[in-house]
């Protein structure tokens, strides 16, 4: 088996981005598993894997990853928004609304504000 290096992990990360963009989330997850095993602190790799889990409808795994990011980066508006979408897709609207509102409070992007439903 070839030796893995930090450069290998960067290549795998970039390839995983391309796979996800090409609608192959499961392929992206396979590449990211080894990157995260080598660099468990990498929020970028975890966020990408969370997005891939979400895209492949592995909602429990997506929730776990997004929650990990929110726990370590409570000011990450995108992670809150993505976690909210995961809760929404899982049929948990109350938990979703909480994170939609956190995302909107952290970053008042129109899509975050709309999802937060502050006016209702």
Automatic annotation (TrEMBL):
Keywords: Repeat, TPR repeat
Superkingdom as given in the UniProt entry: Bacteria
Swiss-Prot/TrEMBL TPR repeat ranges: 77-110
Name of the molecule in the record: Tetratricopeptide repeat-containing protein
Species the sequence originates in: Streptomyces wuyuanensis
Lineage start: Bacteria, Bacillati, Actinomycetota, Actinomycetes, Kitasatosporales
């Amino acid at each position: 088996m070839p030796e893995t290096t930090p450069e290998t992990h960067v290549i795998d990360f970039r390839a995983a981005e391309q796979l996800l963009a090409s609608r192959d989330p499961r392929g992206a997850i396979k590449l990211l598993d080894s990157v995260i095993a080598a660099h468990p602190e990498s929020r970028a790799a975890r966020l990408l894997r969370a997005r891939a889990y979400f895209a492949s409808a592995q909602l429990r795994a997506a929730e776990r990853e997004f929650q990990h990011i929110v726990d370590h980066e409570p000011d990450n508006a995108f992670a809150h928004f993505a976690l909210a979408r995961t809760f929404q897709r899982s049929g948990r609207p109350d938990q979703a609304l909480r994170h939609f509102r956190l995302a909107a409070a952290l970053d008042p992007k129109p899509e975050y504000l709309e999802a937060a439903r502050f006016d209702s």
